[in-house]
Structure formats: C-alpha cells, structure tokens
Design brief:
Largest sheet: 8 strands, parallel, barrel
Strand order of the largest sheet: 12-13-16-22-23-24-27-28
Helix content: 25-40%
Radius of gyration: 43 Å
Oligomer: single chain
Strand content: 15-25%
Structural class: alpha/beta
Shape: globular
Number of helices: 39
Number of strands: 59
Distance between the termini: 30 Å
C-alpha cells in the first residue's frame, strides 16, 4: 500500500513568489509540481533550470516540464509535472500563465558526502567539524601530527582557514595571492604545492574518514596583492568610483590629524598620543569640527558654482531668438550631481531654469531681476547640500569616536595604547601607495587617472546594514559617514554586474574557486552576507562542476531568517553556521538545540507522499567559531564540557574550533596569532608544551560525545526533547522512532565560574521514562595538581590544571554521579526511573541510554510488524511472534473487503443524531469538542502533539475503547473490523503513553486508507479511474447513504428480487434494510427528517448512479413510487405514513431519475417492469402493507402524467398547526396542472411554496409569519424543463413500444379527451422560448409586462406567477431546464443568459439565489435573527441571495453543453472556468472537518453557521459536473 519513494508535492498558486522560502530536498526524492486552486483549468507551464538527465547544469538555461495526468480526466486535481532529484545545489523554477510569469522560487538539494576507503555516506547530521587556522599548522610536513589531534578527538570534518599566501597584516582572511599556496608551509629545501595538499586531503578522507573544507574569500584581497597593482580596475578606486572622492578627502584629513596627534601637536588642545578619558574624546570632537571640516569643505563636492551658473543663465536669457518654454509644474530646479565629483562641479538643468524664471520683458532690469531670483534659488539649493553634508559629518564624528573608544578605552577592546603610525587614531579607509605629501598636493591626485586608480577602498562590515546592498556602490554614503568597521589590510573587490564588467577579476577568482573545489570536499563562504549574490552563484556553479556534492557552509549575520533564506536558496548553502556562544544562559542554549533540528518525540509517522513544507536552513551548530571571543573568559573553563555536550546532542551537524578542547583561555586571533598548534603524543604529560593527548583539557570527553553524535545521526535518532531541569541543568533526549531507544544527556552548565559564584548543592531529582540500559558517558570537569597556565611563546597551549574525569559504558550502579535510582510505574506498562544525583557538579555531564521496558518493547515490535501491511516504513523495529490474537494473522484488507458500502457508512461516518438512534453518540474530547463523526473518518488531528485529541489519548484508553467497542457492538463484518482493531489496541495499551498518539494514528490511518480503497472498488469505473477529487466526492455517497436502526424507506414489494435484508435484533425476524439518502448532515440525518423526495432525487444521479450503486438507486426509486398519491410523490417522506405532499417538483425530479436510471444502468429499462407496492392506491385509502397491491413502475409513471394533465387539487391531511405551525390556512390547499395552450406544468398559490425555494415566514414581529418568501406559483422554469424532459422521453419510449402508453386520457367538460405525448411535447417546445425569454427587443409582442423588465437577454424564473414581478427576477433555476431539456433553448440566447448569470450570480462556491441588483436581495442568512425587518427576520431571505451550492452544478453543466455548440474557442474558455470553480470545491472538501460540501454559503462564499455542513445534492451536483467534464 505505501510506496517507499519519497515524493514531495509543491502546490503552485497564482502570483505566489516564494524566492525567500527555503524548500530543502534530498537526492533520490521526487518533486511534483501541482496546480493550486487559483490555477486549475489555466494553461500553466512550469520552467526550471534543473538539468535534464545527463546534461550539465546551466543557471541561465530553463526548460519546461511535461504535465502528467494519471487519471487522464479533465479536472486538474491530480495533474502534475515532476523532477527526479539526482543532483545537489540550488535550482530555480517559475511558471507562466499563458505568457505571463505568475510565480516561482528555488529548491535546494542537499549534497551526499562520502568518506572512507569504501566511500560510505556521511549523513549531514553526523558531521562533527573542527576549525583550524591554517597559519598555525606549521610546516606542511608537520601537519599530519597536528591534525591527528582532530582524528583522535573524534572529528570527521576539518575546516581550514585559507591556505593561500597572506597579506601584510597576517590576517587569515587577507590573501595576497588567491592562486598560490602559502610559502610559510614550505621548508628552505622543499617547496610544497597544491598537489601535496590534495594528497593529504585524500589520505584523510580514505584512511581517517575525515573530510576537509576550506574558506573562499570573494569580497576582498590584501592591499599588497601583486595582481591588484596590474589590475586596479578590480577594486573600488577613485577612477571607477568617483563618488568616493569626498570620503577619500576626509580619510586623508583624518590620517594627517592622527599623525599630528602621534607627534604631540595637539597636546596643548587636550589630546595627547595616549588617549585615556572622555575629556580627551571631547577634545578630538572639537578639533575635528573646528580644524578639519572647515578646511576640507566637503560640501563643495555636492554644490553648484553659483557665479558660473548665473553667467551661463544670463547668456541664455539674452541670446537672440530665445525660445520661451512653458513652465511645467512637475519640474523643479534641482542640483544634478557631477558624475566626476569635482568641487563645485554640479550643475542644474538650464531648460528647467528658463521655464521657471521668466523675465516679464527683454529689458536689462527684467533680466537682472530674473538672474537674481535664479541666484537666490541656487544659493538655497547649495545650502540644502551643505546641511546634508553637515548631517553626514555628525554621523562621521560619532562613528569615529565610537571606534576610538572601542580600540583604546573599552574594557573588552584591544586597548591599543598611544596613537602611532602603526596604530593610527582611526583605521584608514583607502590605500595610499605614495610618498607622504602636503594635503593640498594630495588632493590634486584624485583627478589624475593613472594615480587615482591606485587610491582604493578597503573592505569591512557595516553594522545593521542591508546585506543585499553593496555599501561601496553609488547611492551609499557608508565611507563618507565613517560607518564602516574597516579591515585596513584588505581592498574591497569590484565585480560589476557580470564577467564582462571586470574580466580579469572574474577569471582570477574562478581559477581560485576551481583550485579549491579540486582539492577540497567543501567550502565555507567567508563574509557571505556581503558577497554579491550573483558573484557567489557564478563561483559556486564553477565549483560544483568539479565537485558535484560540494558541501557549502556559511555564517550569515543578516539578523533575519527571510534574508538568510535568500542566501541559502540562491546559493544552495548546505549548512548555516549557528553559534552556541550567542546563548546568554543555559535555557537559551537548550532552546537552540530544539530550534536547529529534529522533530518532537512521539511525532506521527509521515507518509512518503506529502506536501513540501518550508524549512529552516540545516544547521552546523558550533560551540564556538574562530571569530567568537573565548568562552573561558566569557563563561568559565568549567562550561566547556557541558556546553559542548548540549551542542553535540542537537539533531544537526555540530562543530568546534581548535583550542576549545585544550581549554586555551584566550581567543586565538585570526590576525595576530603566530604560534603553532600542539601535536598528538599519547605519552605526553599534562604540563608538557606543544603536545596533547586524552589527558589534555576535555579531549577525552570530546571524543566520546563526537562518536555519540555520529551514532545518533547515523541510526536515525531524529526526535528531540529538551528539558530545562533547573537554571543550570539542561537535559536533551534524542529518540529513535523505529527502535524507540533514547539517549538522554544531562549537562550542568557553568556559565559562571564555580570558584567565584554560588551553585546549589541540591540538584533536582530527574524522572527518565523507560529502562536505563547503561551510562554511555559520565564526565566531570575537575582541577588537577599541575603548574598553573602560562602562555607559551611558540605553542598554542591550554590550561594544564583543568581536565575531565571520564567513565564510559558503565552500569547505573557503578556511577559516581548518580546517588541512587528507584523505579516507579506510571500505569501498568510504563516504567520510570527516578534519578537522584550526588556529584553532578557544575561542569559535569552524564548520558544515559534508555530503552522501553522489555514488555513495552515487544508490544511496539508486534504493532510495527502488523503495521507493515500498510507501509514498509514499519519494517525496522518490527517483531514477528506466533501467539498473537488469531484475527491479526489475517490481513486487515481481507477482513474489511467483505464490508458493503452501507456497512462502510457505519464504520466511517455517522453523525451524532444517526448514532443516537442506535443508542450511541460521537466521542467528546474534553477541552475541545465532540467529533463530527462516530466512524473513522475524522480521527486524525494535524501533526500537533499538543492537540487536546492527543492529550486525551495520552491520558487514558477511552477513545481507543470507543473506536473498537462501537464496531464490535454491531454484527457481522463490522464487528470483525472492530475485533481486529481491538486486537491491535491490546498491544497499543502496553506501550508508554507518550507513544500512543503516534501508533493509534498509524493503526487508524492504515485502516482508514484500506477502507477507502474497499469503498472505491465497489463503485463505478468512473470513480475507480477518477481523480482524487472524484474519489473524495464519491465518498459523499457513503457518507449520505445508510441504514439506521429503523428503516427510513417504506417497504418494497416482497416479489422484488435482491432486496437487502437483516435479522431484527429484537423480533429476531428478517426485515428489509434498504439504504436511504440523508438530505444533509447534521440537520437532516435521522428520524422522519432524514428523507425528502426532492433532495433525494436531485442527489440520486450524482451519488448513486454515477458512483455505480444501481441496486440502491433502484430500491429508492421504487420505494418512493410506492408512496405516490394525488399524482405526486412526497416532499417529507416520513417513512411514507407521515408523508407531506406539499411540493410540485419532487415528482418531476423522480421521473428524471427514472429516465437517468434507464439510460445509465445496464439493462436499465427493466426497472419499468419492476413491481411497485402501492401504499395509497387511491388518494384516500389507508396505508396498505407491502405486497397488498403491486403495479409495474410504468403504470405508476402513467398515473402521474394523467393526474397532472387532469389537474390536481386537494387539501393536505391534518391541515393546521399540527403539521405546520407557520402555514396560513390557504397554504394547505395544493394545486397542480398542465396549461392546455402551452403544455406548461403550473401550480401553487401565493401562500405556499411548492418548489425547492420553500422558505415559509416565521416571524410575528416582522409580520412575515405564514407568508412564503418565494411562492414561485404559476409555471416554475425548472419544472417546465423537467416535465419537458419526461414528456420527450416517454414519447421516445412509446414510439419504440417500450412504454405502452402514447397519450394521456382526461375528462374535460364531461368529455373524455386524449392528449398525445407528441402533442404535449410540441406545445412546450413551441411556447417555451416565446414566453420565458426576456427579449432584447423592447417591442416584443410576447412580452405582457414590459414595464417589469429590468434585465434583458435572460430567462424568466417563472411564468404566470400571482405576483408578475417575480417572473422577471434573475435566479439560477433556468440553468436546470437547460441541462435536462436543452432542446428548449436557442444556443445564442442560452449563452447570453448564462453569461449574465455567471456575472451576476456565480459566487466562490455557490450561485446567488437572487440577482444582487434586486431590491430584496440579501446574501447573509441568519435563521436566529428576529427583528422588524420583513425581508430578513427568521431567515426569510433563505433563497433571496445566499449562495446555494447545488445550482452551481447545473450552471456549469449548462455552460459546458452550450459552449460546445458555440465553437472550440468558447469550449476551452468554459473548461477553464469550470475547472477553476471546481478547484474551490476541492479545497473546501479537503479542509472541511465534515469532508463534504455545504448546503449554502453566505455572500461571496462566507461561512454560514445555519447551513448543513455537508449536503447530498451539493456533492451530487459537483460530481455530475465532473462526470460531464
């Protein structure tokens, strides 16, 4: 039943742009794109750049995907196109609607990492990474001995900072040559190359099972890079980025200020070289504002030369034949920035000036006046620029002083000491590769291109900046405002938009990327959030060509998950680095573990085919990164072990930085550190320098937790639970959902130093559910007696006086941390171990391996074994035993396959009132609500373990027993199904309560899906081969058709064959048990209100004939035939004996169903000869018992036709408040007949309502009591259509001698008159359009009431109503006539009327029952409202606007029929409309807790609380539409 291939479905919706949404997938998955409701029926094409098999990936090359429609049906609910994902990386998709782009996004496919000689897979969640600063590795021939420390510590991935030649600053990230291996790694007599590095990396992968990744730095290069001198265009210099000139001028001025301060020139003004206090800071601020800014006139770069501009303007004003331009109020004079940024080089648009300042004559005075106005305006504009620059200068001073404070005064800063040329007052923002010269001479260089090109901007980072904006491009003032935290040895690289913009740089960096991808299995994108996305995409594409399963990691500082996702999705980042150091306490550290991976313990099993859900990026969770400050300084040395354990228990990749495990008590600086790492020596003593082993720091414990991390990832411990035991203790559980083993770590953190802070001796008791198999690890951070820490000059050394005591794989009673462990039980099968600690000191961890107790473990195994029949997922952890209940030896499908559809109604559905009839009810969930159904349909909340439903299951067995006992109490196969469930539940009750929701769900989902398959197998091929939508709608047939304790239908003739029977449990006698059709749930489901003639026959074709339930359809047709009286069949059936014959249309719907039955069922015409047991052979006879008087059905049909032609007139039996408390006396008088002239069936009066629009007024207060809202007397359009259909059909049958009557015989004025079916048929045909069509021609002679016409080109709702206005109301009923008797309509007129109906009446789910332009229209139905409003009180507007669903089916079917006559173009547009409307019903059906379609909605599809939640005719009408489609 279950497939094992993982398939994810991505629903496409109109205009849904998901570029910021992360969709993560794995290789081997299938991704299906399906149409969401907004796109169904539209011509949609999906494009993707995921390559065809065997093709190379090209980001720019998109191709379209082919649609597949497994059911080959017209509806789009199952149509999909797919990708089989076999390649890692980021891939884009978008889709077009017609030719318009309508939405799109990205998918990210994870790489598959492999290690070892056998090339086995290393899952991403198993990664344990350690970062090494490459420059601290020493000569290359010593690397192996230093890297061995990582191997022995249990790491399986090493991250090297760049291995290239470094710049002058010696920062690991300032590279002088991207293509050359750092010469520091070579010996004088031996030069090492990339090939040597590659060989070592390969050895580590094959022999040590370690993968290697390294950084790529795309943003900057070292200032002294040789290639940069040859290609200065690769940087942001003053030639290609002249907008930086003002910032450069400021930067130089600040450099000269710094030199002067260093030389003591400002001592008198309060600023010495050594800056020690706030007073000096204030003096610096004063000097800058008084000396620096006034000298450098930065504002001039943004201003206009006023005198020059005025002269030019004067020249233009005085030139001959000057054109006068009309002033444009939208155009204002503004400064146009000089692109070269020369002082006073800006301009204004002289055309705007001439149009703004116009002299009133050509005389000199007028010209002068005009020029002075112009001059005044220019001075105002210059002044605005001056203010703007002033605002920038204020920010610049604040940033500069902030920087000085951090570098020289702040406690956590580097405390640089006196200002010198090496440590200037502020870092320089630009390179200056020239001799020192005076300020004035310097500035002249910025306009000399071959010098200005070497004045280059440094890189850095900007706090809180938008990472998608490049801060060095025009439009950014970061350099001028001194907002850059600058790296003074790196030049920012300028790529432009594409390789052609800077060919050398792109080619150089591509080569660098290719070297990296050739020798390493992964890369870390340094400074990723500032790397231009298009550059990173281009480089990663090149890398993945060489290393298809490239592991890409990055650290993003965007501060927003949405922004993170842009980088992750565009670049295909495999893991995002997350830092535990960002946690301010242990509680937050625990929260991060929960955030970064895994699902909750006891989660529901997910199917292989499921929607693709947005994800958060896969995490590489690090206890410390090489950029972090030292945790020993920030927290304490005692926290290294517990925090690294907490991080390692996360269900994601984990990592650390070299030095953390050795307890190095300071940050190992990427810039200034020049010492080497220690080597591995098992024999070294704790205080030996330059060598480490398991006695050093926390290395021994690290090895154990790394191995555990890898085991948990490899063995599928994917469920996570984090428990904050107290303020310092965090317990993390990793659980395997297949073997139900857990590993529980308890870590006591030490964010505060235990030697100087108070920690309580009292540690809370802990309860661990299950049986503790072993203590995997217990470790305590302890002091030992050695020399204290002294920083070594040559080796990076850690604290020798702190280490860990560690014991692995011991029994609980051997533990030194656990004082005692007691076992208590929580219920019969749940063991809980109560742990009391004695030595869980700060800096300690203990990790338990926990199993279920053996009894529960066996029960889970047996359950999993029986669940494998539903899904292969349960194979692992399953246990086959012989002594289970014999019923479990039979597959569930073979037990359930004996169920009939009527029995499936009881197993799957039945609402509260249906169950109450049998003495039961639906299950009530405390703190929530009752279930909608007693059957299995609804028992499944979403994957929400906190739902009251799951609480109820965890709290006790009530729900479990309810499900099985309810079925066992019935007999036959239903009881067998109950017994199978009971046998499964026997084992379910033996497992821990926290697992019960998951397994209860698995049992019920397995059973439920099997039962659905069994239902569909008993239906027609239309359903069996149909789409998901068709199948789910067809279940409405099971939902609505059932047999209660008391049969709702009158008994059929005993001489009829194949009538279903059962044994009455009380009388022990055989009785008929035919299914009856409920009108709707929950209001019309039981007792005498279950069956209605009209509802039954409007729904019968869709729910019974189309689904292939022919026998049930036959029985219902014949049962109702037996109740015929006065030539009518009942409205309310009331089991026949309480029937009310107060509707004029039910009999015509019944006839339509007989016609449909004869046409659709094999040998369907046989029904005409079936015996009908007449309950009322005459109008006044008492009800006869079944079999007293039988007649063939064709005689009953003929009687109906005769009685109508003769004319029907009677008063309802028991007329008065006992049968209708609202009806006025005249309303109980029923009339129906056929008009002699037109052949139209007519009937009713102004005080009753004999059609489906049957609302009777109920409000005394509003004075509408006893008044029908919609009497529709006269000839209602749908009844005329239905009668035409019946007459035409009987005419055809009589011509073939299948129906023995050719005419009806009636008495008129004492004479016998014969009316042939041919004549009757012709009369309706000839008069219908003449009298029902509202002509577009105002002078149409057939129009009796032209003054009442308010819409032309429509069909009347009735003809001959007692209130003529009602004839002309636009309602959806004419569409019914179009479907059953299309021959009555002229195609063009019909189409026009349908277009109007579509525009005016079509809602999201239903049809408005009245034209919204009508004065009594009101679209909201409120049956509880009782006020003075005649049109609304007590729901009087039930059919005066609310949107009913079933007419939509007829509207769409009519559109489909007539569109085919209108031509192919109209047909295809109509098919789109139909699919689109139906898609909304599909969405409703899927989301409805009743799994049905409602009776009606309020205006514009709003929910109506007074509607039936699921209605037979609503489902039927939509099914019929799909059948026509």
């Amino acid at each position: 039943m279950g497939h094992s291939k993982q398939i994810r479905i991505l629903l496409l919706n109109e205009m849904e742009k998901l570029e910021n949404t992360l969709f993560r997938l794995e290789q081997g998955f299938e991704l299906q794109f399906r149409l969401g409701p907004t796109l169904q029926g539209k011509a949609v094409t999906v494009y993707t750049n995921y390559p065809f098999p065997g093709e190379a990936f090209n980001r720019e090359k998109f191709h379209s995907l082919e649609w597949e429609n497994p059911t080959e049906r017209e509806d789009d609910s199952d149509k999909y196109c797919k990708l089989n994902l076999q390649q890692a990386g980021s891939f884009q998709y978008y889709f077009l609607q017609g030719n318009e782009k309508s939405g799109g996004g990205y998918i990210v496919v994870d790489p598959i990492l492999r290690v070892g000689a056998d090339n086995h897979v290393l899952p991403l969640d198993c990664v344990t990474l350690q970062t090494f600063l490459a420059k601290c590795m020493g000569p290359f021939d010593e690397w192996e001995s230093r890297l061995r420390v990582a191997k022995e510590s249990g790491y399986n991935m090493i991250h090297f900072t760049p291995l290239q030649t470094l710049g002058l600053s010696r920062s690991c990230y300032s590279l002088a040559d991207q293509l050359e291996l750092n010469p520091d790694f070579s010996r004088p007599n031996k030069k090492y190359t990339w090939t040597d590095v590659g060989q070592l990396v390969e050895k580590l992968k094959k022999e040590w099972n370690i993968l290697c990744i390294t950084d790529v730095v795309y943003n900057h290069t070292a200032s002294k890079s040789k290639w940069l001198q040859e290609h200065p265009e690769s940087a942001y210099n003053l030639v290609n980025s002249p907008h930086l000139k003002p910032a450069w001028v400021l930067d130089r001025a600040l450099w000269h200020l710094s030199c002067d301060v260093a030389e003591g020139k400002y001592k008198e003004r309060g600023v010495a070289a050594l800056i020690e206090n706030d007073h000096q800071m204030n003096c610096i601020r004063k000097i800058i504002w008084e000396d620096i800014f006034p000298k450098i006139h930065l504002w001039e770069f943004f201003q206009v030369d006023v005198d020059k501009a005025v002269e030019q303007f004067r020249g233009l004003l005085t030139q001959e034949n000057r054109k006068t331009t009309k002033p444009d109020p939208k155009q204002h004079l503004k400064i146009i920035q000089d692109p070269e940024y020369r002082r006073l080089g800006c301009t204004v648009d002289m055309n705007v000036a001439l149009a703004t300042f116009i002299p009133h004559d050509d005389g000199p005075a007028a010209i002068n006046e005009c020029c002075s106005w112009f001059q005044k305006r220019l001075e105002e504009l210059n002044s605005e620029k001056h203010q703007l620059v002033n605002y920038h200068q204020e920010q610049a001073v604040n940033c500069l002083l902030g920087n000085v404070f951090y570098e020289r005064l702040a406690g956590h800063g580097p405390k640089l000491g006196p200002v010198t040329r090496k440590h200037p007052l502020v870092t320089r923002y630009f390179t200056f590769p020239f001799e020192e010269m005076p300020v004035s001479t310097e500035e002249s260089m910025i306009h000399v291109p071959d010098k200005a090109c070497f004045l280059m901007a440094h890189n850095g980072w900007v706090m809180g900046d938008d990472p998608l904006r490049n801060f060095a491009e025009p439009g950014s003032d970061v350099y001028l405002r001194r907002e850059l935290i600058c790296w003074g040895d790196s030049v920012k690289l300028r790529y432009g938009k594409k390789p052609e913009d800077c060919p050398y740089l792109w080619a150089h960096m591509k080569k660098y990327t290719e070297i990296t991808a050739t020798y390493f299995q992964g890369i870390r994108l340094d400074n990723c959030h500032s790397t231009p996305l298009h550059v990173a995409e281009y480089m990663l594409d090149a890398a993945r060509k060489l290393q298809p399963n490239l592991y890409v990691v990055a650290e993003l500082f965007t501060g927003s998950e949405d922004l993170d996702n842009i980088f992750v999705t565009r670049l295909g980042i495999s893991s995002l680095i997350r830092e535990a150091m960002s946690a301010y306490d242990s509680h937050e550290e625990g929260r991060l573990v929960y955030r970064y991976g895994g699902e909750p313990v006891g989660s529901f099993v997910q199917p292989c085919l499921r929607p693709l859900m947005p994800a958060i990026a896969h995490a590489l969770f690090m206890d410390i990164t090489h950029d972090n400050e030292c945790p020993i300084v920030h927290r304490s040395a005692y926290d290294a072990l517990p925090s690294s354990t907490i991080v390692s228990m996360a269900c994601c990749a984990s990592g650390s930085t070299k030095g953390y495990d050795e307890l190095v008590p300071h940050q190992i600086s990427v810039v200034s550190e020049e010492r080497f790492y220690s080597k591995w020596n098992p024999a070294a003593s704790p205080s030996s320098i330059g060598e480490v082993n398991f006695q050093s720091g926390i290395i021994a414990a690290r090895c154990a937790i790394n191995k555990l991390h890898q085991e948990l990832g490899a063995k599928g411990f994917i469920q996570v639970y984090v428990d904050q035991v107290d303020e310092d203790i965090v317990a993390v559980t990793r659980h395997s959902p297949s073997i139900h083993q857990s590993v529980v770590s308890v870590s006591r953190t030490a964010f505060r130093n235990p030697k100087t802070s108070f920690y309580s001796k009292e540690v809370p008791q802990m309860c661990i559910p299950g049986k503790i198999e072993e203590v995997v690890l217990e470790a305590r951070t302890v002091e030992r007696n050695t020399e204290p820490y002294r920083k070594d000059a040559n080796s990076i050394n850690g604290m020798p006086n702190i280490t860990v005591e560690i014991r692995e794989h011991i029994q609980l009673n051997e533990s030194k941390i656990v004082k005692q462990a007691g076992i208590t039980t929580k219920g019969p099968n749940e063991y809980i171990q109560e742990i009391e600690f004695e030595n869980l000191s700060p800096g300690s961890v203990i990790i338990f391996r926990v199993s279920l107790d053996p009894h529960a473990q066996a029960a889970v195994g047996i359950l999993r074994n029986h669940l494998t029949q539903f899904s292969p997922h349960f194979k692992s952890g399953s246990l086959a035993v012989d002594d289970t209940d014999p019923i479990l030896k039979i597959p569930f499908a073979s037990i359930a396959s004996k169920l009939t559809l009527a029995e499936l109604n009881q197993v799957l559905y039945r609402c509260e009132s249906e169950e109450q009839e049998d003495g039961g009810g639906c299950y009530n969930i405390p703190n929530w609500s009752s279930l909608k159904y007693a059957g299995l349909q609804e028992i499944r909340p979403k994957n929400d373990l906190g739902h009251p439903f799951c609480d109820n299951l965890r709290s006790g067995d009530w729900m479990i027993d309810y499900v099985s006992n309810r079925l066992i109490s019935r007999s036959g196969t239903i009881a067998e199904v109950g017994k199978w469930l009971q046998a499964m539940f026997f084992y379910l009750k033996q497992i821990p309560r926290y697992l019960i929701p998951c397994y209860f769900d698995a049992i019920l989902i397995g059973a439920y899906t099997t039962l659905l398959d069994i239902a569909w197998k008993q239906m027609s091929s239309f359903v069996q081969n149909g789409s998901t939508f068709v199948k789910h709608l067809s279940l409405g047939s099971v939902q609505m058709c059932g047999v209660g304790k008391c049969p709702s239908l009158p008994l059929l003739s005993p001489s009829l064959m194949d009538v279903p029977c059962r044994l009455n449990e009380i009388t022990r006698e055989k009785e008929q048990c035919c299914v009856s059709l409920a009108a709707g749930l929950p209001h019309f489901s039981s007792g005498i209100f279950r069956c209605w003639g009209r509802d039954t026959f409007i729904a019968l074709r869709g729910l019974l004939l189309i689904t292939g339930r022919y026998m049930e359809a036959r029985n219902i047709i014949l049962a109702f035939a037996g109740t015929l009286r006065h030539g009518l069949i009942p409205n309310l059936l009331g089991e026949g004996t309480y029937a009310r014959y107060n509707c004029r249309d039910a009999v015509w719907w019944w006839l339509q169903c007989i016609q449909d039955y004869c046409k659709m069922v094999p040998n369907g015409l046989d029904i005409l000869r079936c015996p009908v047991s007449r309950m009322y052979p005459t109008d006044d006879s008492a009800p006869l018992s079944a079999g007293t008087l039988d007649q063939p059905l064709f005689e009953v049909i003929q009687e109906t036709m005769q009685r109508h032609m003769q004319g029907i007139q009677f008063r309802e039996r028991n007329a008065g408040p006992q049968i209708d408390r609202n009806m006025k006396d005249e309303g109980f008088n029923i009339t129906a007949g056929v008009d002699e002239e037109t052949g139209f069936v007519y009937g009713g009066n102004r005080l009753n309502c004999g059609t489906w629009m049957d609302k009777m007024g109920e409000s005394d207060r509003a004075r509408n009591k006893g008044i029908p809202a919609t009497p529709r007397d006269g000839s209602a359009v749908e009844i005329v259509g239905l009668s035409k259909s019946a007459v035409r059909w009987l005419l055809e049958l009589s011509q073939k001698n299948i129906f023995p009557y050719h005419e009806v015989t009636v008495k008129r004025h004492g004479k016998v008159v014969k009316v042939s079916y041919d004549e009757w048929n012709r009369k309706i045909q000839d008069n219908f359009e003449k009298l029902f069509y509202v002509s577009e021609d105002p002078s149409d002679v057939n129009e009796k009431h032209s003054n009442l016409v308010h819409k032309r080109g429509i069909y009347k709702d009735s003809y001959g109503a007692s209130s003529p206005w009602c004839d002309y109301q636009l309602r959806p009923n004419f569409t019914i006539a179009m479907v059953v008797a299309p021959e009555l309509f002229t195609t063009e007129k019909a189409w026009k009327a349908l277009e109007i109906a579509g525009k005016k009446l079509l809602g999201p789910l239903g049809m408005k029952t009245l034209d919204p332009d009508d004065m009594v229209y009101c679209g909201t139905y409120d049956n509880a409202l009782d006020n003075d409003n005649y049109s609304l009180a007590k729901g009087f507007n039930y059919h005066q606007g609310p949107e009913w669903l079933w007419p939509v089916g007829y509207f769409l079917r009519a559109k489909l029929y007539f569109s085919k006559l209108m031509g192919p173009e109209v047909t295809s547009k109509t098919i789109f409309l139909v699919k689109n409307v139906l898609s909304r019903h599909y969405v409703h059906l899927e989301r409805s807790p009743w799994k049905g379609l409602p009776e009606l909605t309020n205006e514009n599809g709003q929910y109506c609380p007074f509607s039936c939640e699921t209605q037979a005719w609503s489902i039927a009408a939509i099914l019929e539409t799909l059948y026509d489609l």
